[in-house]
Amino acid sequence: MADQSRESEKQILTVQKDVEHLQYIIKELEKECKFVKDHFTKKNGERLDDVKTIHGRIDQHLQTDLDFHENVRKKISDRFQIFDDRIRQLDRWKWATWGALIVIGGLCGYFVPLPKLIGA
């Protein structure tokens, strides 16, 4: 019986050492887990800041491009307006000239009949 109780004590001591060793391993793993979480959280935070910075730069470039294209569109529209005004003015002169030619032709036809011009 004494042998059996010594054997039980050895087994209990062995199990206690195993439990202590497992507790030590668990503590170390928890430390490493915490380090990894902190590290990734810090790195993810830095990456998010980098992404925000890049998005800000992209937004600035987009706004600059939009402003440029809006400016170009406005200049082109202004030029087309100038050309449109000139064309309208020339069109008015064209019709005024045609009207004047018709009146002059009618008056000439009235005062100088066409058979006299032909020589008949």
Biggest β-sheet description: none
Distance between the termini: 163 Å
The radius of gyration computed from the alpha-carbon positions, rounded to a whole number of angstroms, is 50 Å
Helix count?
A: 2
> Judging from the principal axes of the Cα atoms, what is the shape?
rod-shaped
Tell me the fraction of residues in β-strands, as a range.
Answer: under 5%
| Number of separate domains | 1
What does the model show?
- This protein has one domain (2-90).
- It is an all-alpha fold and 120 residues long.
- The model has no long low-confidence stretch (mean pLDDT 86).
- It contains two helices and no strands.
In short:
This protein is 96% helix and 0% strand. It contains two helices and no strands.
Which secondary structure elements does this structure contain, and how are they paired or packed?
Blueprint: H1 2-111, H2 114-118
Keyphrases for this structure?
mainly alpha; 0% strand; rod-shaped; 120 residues
